[in-house]
Write a structure and sequence with these properties.
Two copies of one chain form a homodimer. The first copy, chain A, is an alpha+beta fold. Chain A has a single domain, classed as Orthogonal Bundle (Arc Repressor Mutant, subunit A). The first copy, chain A, has five helices and three strands; from the N terminus they run ααβααββα. In chain A, strands 1-3-2 form a three-stranded antiparallel beta sheet.
């Protein structure tokens, strides 16, 4: 396997873990699937539609997101936004993320214990 | 599914992506599997032996780690350390990690684009 391929795999793994957190934070402002996909891509998360849409449905089932249909347009759209439980999860994941970030930085500086 | 269970899953996902990076950084000092497992756990990465050992072998196959047997003890141990290619990958992943961290922080502060 080429270095670039290994790197791409590693980068994707790094991002995969943060997609849920990124979705929750983005959906503090109501958004629908396709627009969210665009914003995630702008942020460097190369998520596919067939990964994101089931993820949004799962987050709704877990009561982390709530949804509402906007039928004012010719094409009805399902808008998602974060729920209070979702906010709580996002806060916990952010705190955890900061702990991991601190560990990684300490490791990089050679303080491994 | 309970909140705590969802949180534990999310936390595990966050960590999974950084295990490779953590291993590479830790193995700037030569180490063997079992000791590495302990240090990863101290850092909050709850990795299982049956996940770590195949991972180390894969990283060696990818030329990111090199290994050497220490047979001076009654029980021979395989010591791994990072290779120059591994250092290059670690540097790239660290840079990428910082980009993701910056995106997540910006999102949290409400600057989503």
């Amino acid at each position: 396997m080429e270095f670039d391929e290994i790197l791409a795999g590693g980068q994707q793994e790094l991002r995969r873990g943060t997609v849920v957190l990124a979705c929750l934070l983005l959906l503090r402002e109501p958004g629908y699937g396709y627009a969210l996909l665009d914003r995630l891509r702008d942020l460097g998360f190369s998520v596919e539609a067939n990964t994101l849409y089931p993820l949004l449905r799962r987050l709704e089932t877990q009561a982390l997101l709530v949804s509402e249909w906007d039928t004012s347009d010719a094409r009805p759209r399902k808008f998602y936004r974060i729920s209070p439980t979702g906010e709580r999860l996002a806060a916990e994941l952010l705190a955890d993320w900061e702990r991991i970030a601190a560990s990684v930085r300490r490791l990089n500086q050679g303080v491994s214990s």
